Amino acid sequence: MLSIIKSMTVVGITGNIVFVQVDVSNGLPYFEIVGLPDTIVREAKERVRIAIKNSGYDFFSKRIVVNLAPANIKKMGALFDLPIAIGILSSLGIIKNKDFDNYVIIGELSLDGKVKKVREALAICIELRKQGISNIIIPKENEDEVKFIDGINIYMASNLKEVADYFNGEKILNKVKTLEYSKVINNRNYDMDFSEVYGQEKAKRALEIAIAGGHNCLMIGTPGSGKTMLAQRVKTILPNLTLDEALEVTKINSLYGEENYEVAIERPFRNPHYTISESGLIGGGAYPKPGEVTLANSGILFLDELTEYKTNVLEMLRTPLEDKEITISRVKAQITYPTNFILIAAMNPCPCGYYGSLVKKCKCSERSRKRYVEKISGPLLDRFDLFVDVTSIEYSEFKKENNKNLSEKIRKKVIQARNLQLERYKKYNINLNSELKNSYINEFCALDLKSQDLLNKFYEKAKLSARAYNKIIKVARTIADLELKEKIEYKHIAEAIQYRKKEEIL
Amino acid sequence: MCDENVDNSKNIGRFGEKLAEKYLVKNNYKIVEKNFRCKFGEIDIVAFYKKELIFIEVKTRTNNKYGTGINSIDKNKEKHLYKTAEYYLYNKKINIGIRIDAIEITLNKGLVSIKHYKNIILDKPY
Questions:
Q1: With an 8 Å Cβ cutoff, are B96 and A26 in contact?
Q2: Rounded CA gap, A418 and A397, in Å?
Q3: What is the per-residue burial (b if ≥16 Cβ within 10 Å, else e) of B80-102?
Q4: What is the pLDDT at residue A418?
Q5: Domains in chain B, ordered, with CATH?
Q6: pTM of the shown model
Q7: Measured at the alpha carbon of residue A19, what is the angle toward residues A15 and A24, in degrees to the nearest 5?
Q8: pLDDT at A261
Q9: Residue A210 in this model has a pLDDT that exceeds 60
Q10: What is the ipTM of this complex?
Q11: Do A45 and B124 touch (CB under 8 A)?
């Protein structure tokens, strides 16, 4: 007799429904699993047979064929043990209820019939939440990590017999109690604050704009002026993750190979060292794993000492920055990962670091300075929205009264500005000003004549690219949003242009 | 000398098979066939019990110096049993539940012990 159980396998970060079809018929004892199983799935044979025996069911010697459909997707992991066992019990007539349509079942079996933890539980629950399948049975040991998943019924099973009894209507499986995500993450305290950085008001403002509108920011400045400190404190002004974002972040982290993971509560802040390789940054491997650009998804990618990175590695950033996703093609798989991050980079203006400084004289020759900054190509520079000088500060800045909890103030402004954008772009499937398509710019970023005139003059003078031109408008939009203004004004455009003045250095 | 030994073990084997038969009948098994032979091998007893057809391999031992009877059923023997059973089913066009069992008989100074192992093969052994 045939029974069909739904389960799921995870390829990259997308889950695919797998139909576990079990047929039991008379004949010489035989047990085969087909449908592109990997070694772990094939070994399920022994686990399932012995787990069924040790759960107190009659020994069976039948012809059992298990097919995992669709046949073309590679099935990985031990999570198919439980659905196969349930399928067999149903085909043998031990489970009378044959209606498994609304259930997805996952779980590894141990020989004594207990259901063991599986690595993919969270990723699968997230996927189901998207696909709208209402019930899932997961191992009880996975309870903690799925507690934030809302919208689906998650049942927990600790052994095979419980699940069989559940389908026979003899027992009730406990549901996972869902916690509200936003309540859990609201009270976070950082041990750093923007007020710890002396001076650098312009840089702080630039970072505020960058985070508010999702713009990429390049800080250029003398050694020790606080570039790295500033970037690290960006964490403290990031808005909270929404549940959807958190689930995606968690899913990606789990792929990266963290064994015991929980739902992320902080936006990612990735700070790879400049010795990083191409596949480290972009992702790679025979079976492509996510790289730093994907791990930084919905967070920050901070590249300190930008000029020290290998040029070919940096150039790889071009497409992920523009497309917000990257497709990695290797022999075994072709996987598309999201790369929706804000790029924040820091560099010195020249080898000695003091070019343009008011405090110390630069010792570099013009040629060596040129060669230093030329490491970063035009196309990559063109993708930054904000350029900001971070130079040495006056002594008086140390004496200034420090504004405590500066981060919290900035963060509030950022959240306000972001909410404004969310509201405005609700219908367009975008969240931030930086994601605005060119066609929408006229609609949302209308300029008055005076600002237009200013922008046109700057465009001519600085020989901007069309992309840079649009970026200025988008930054101006964010500045206006930070002031809660509906229209972009002259001063907003003027400020946005300020962040584009890089010609004297680069 | 050598022939005597072979004859002797054949007799022990046959004796064991008779004991197994008696044991099965006593336990309400219906004997269908004895010593079914084909080019794949031999099955000692084919019996019928509770809607299932059971293929039984009988192993008789007078001592356990060289391992018990059940130990001597190795992968190769399983293969022969399975193939013979397959051939039997194909020949007789039978479609019911199947089991492959082993009965181990130990003869020791007039004492007889019978052990019945059920379901010794659960998967295709090759």
A1: yes
A2: 31
A3: bbbbbbbbbbeeeeeeebbbbbb
A4: 92
A5: 2-117 (3.40.1350.10)
A6: 0.76
A7: 150
A8: 65
A9: yes
A10: 0.82
A11: no
Q: Are A237 and A211 in contact (CB under 8 A)?
A: yes
CATH number of the domain bearing residue A136: 3.30.230.10
Pick A129 or A296 by higher pLDDT.
A296
Of A27, A32, A61, the CB nearest to B119: A61
* Separation of alpha carbons A163 and B49, rounded Å: 32
* Residues on chain B touching A61 (C-beta within 8 angstroms): 97-100, 119, 121-122
CB A8 within 8 Å of CB A124: yes
Indicate if A163 and A198 belong to the same structural domain. no
When pLDDT is averaged across residues A98-110 and rounded to a whole number, the result is 90
Q: How do residues A148-165 score in pLDDT, each as one tens digit?
A: 888 899 999 999 999 999
| Structure tokens belonging to residue B36 | 């079914």
Residue B43 has pLDDT above 50, yes or no: yes
The pLDDT value recorded for residue B1 is: 47
The token duo for A235 is: 């964490």
Mean pLDDT, rounded, for B43-61: 92
How many residues in chain A?
506
Question: Comparing C-alpha atoms, which of A131, A109, A104 is closest to residue A6?
Answer: A104
What is the nearest CA distance from B87 to chain A, expressed in angstroms?
A: 11
Among the partner-chain residues A31, A49, A61, the one whose CB lies closest to the CB of B99 is A61
Q: Which two tokens stand for residue A472?
A: 């200025």
The residues in A 18-57 lying below 8 A from B, measured between CB atoms, are 26-32, 45, 49
8 Å CB contact of A61 and B98: yes
Give residue A83's domain range.
2-167
Closest CA to A222 of A361, A396, A407, A410: A361
More confident residue, A396 or A250: A250
- When scoring A43, A46, A61, A64 by the number of chain B Cβ atoms within 10 A, the one with the most, hence best to mutate, is A61
- Mean pLDDT across chain A, nearest whole number? 88
Residue A204 lies in a domain: yes
Percent of chain A whose pLDDT exceeds 90: 43
A66 pLDDT higher than 50: yes
- Please say whether the beta carbons of A119 and A85 come within 8 A: no
